[in-house]
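User: I'm curious whether this sequence folds into something compact or stays loose and floppy. Could you predict its structure so I can see for myself?
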Amino acid sequence: MPRFIHTADWQIGRQYATFPEEDAVPLAQARLAVVERLAQLAQEHQVDAVLVAGDVFDMQTVSERVVRQMFNAMSAYAGPWVLISGNHDAVLAESVWSRIVRLGLVPANVHLALKPEPVLLNEAQLVVLPAPLTQRHTFDDTTAWFNLAESPEGWVRVGLAHGSVQGLLAEDIDSPNPIAQDRATQARLDYLALGDWHGCKQIDARTWYSGTPEPDRFKSNEAGHALLVQVDAPGALPAVTKLLTGCHPWQSLMHRLDVDSDLDELVALLQGLPAQVVLSLTLVGKLDLAGQQRLQAALGELEARARHLNVDQSDLQLAPTDDDIASLHADGYLAELVCELRDAQAVEGPDDAQQRVQREALSILAGLLAQQQGAAA
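Assistant: Here's the prediction. I'll summarize afterward.
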């Protein structure tokens, strides 16, 4: 009755170059922290093995220090780990894997399945058929050899591969690396553990993508999981349970603001977001000054809880009402300037750099005048 954890796409060593350093560094560290959580889950569920379906590393040039940190993170589970290469860390003539072996960094309980040959886990009576990638892009199905691979009588038979299931994942894939839709059936597999698709996805009863254990993209596809798999006997359908592993949920939201209730809804939505969220927020529509102040307060509160917050307000018009302007008690040139900036926002047409500067200037000026009124009171 083998029980194992299926995971993939750790992308250890990934750099978040488009993020500010204060967010990029913790996000990179989270990819190591999630390996610790996987080890803890493996220990907690008393599994027979952890199978890692490729892209363990994000690049071939990952440092020795990071490699050592990864193996340290795995140490909480002393059972067997089986790792294969993916398109990001393919087994080239000189690769991250050859350096790891040359430096003698591989723990005794870690199997680097870097050749297409069976890995026998005797205690669990589990045979793992690996399909490591030896180049980033391959147009041949590396799992084809599974069909003719022999395994001991009465043992559970599991395939471990990295690529794209033919006809199902044609979009948004990093490289071809095709895998036949019916490989599990052709090769008499009890389970086929796949990597490359970063979301958790079931292909059929015996074929799953676990997805990356730590989300890393603004895509709603159930990233941030590992799979707990149990096969009661050879030929039995596997029982698959999703295990939540991710620390930083990634969300991309677009919200339109036209009336007060729209802002009420947005504020409630922002307040309900989980801590450590990575959020890309696009706002469109218009706000008066009071609404702008509420929005900035809500965003400031979220920024203190979030891991990363990016807000696009380029299509959000700041439209002070006459009452807003009157409440600022601006007179003379300042009153004229406020009205001029407001009217500039009402001009129809595509948003341009000048309008964005005018909108920012209006927001700053209105804020300063409001502060002045508050101090005078």
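Summary: The chain has a mean pLDDT of 90. Residues 21-44 form the longest helix (24 residues).
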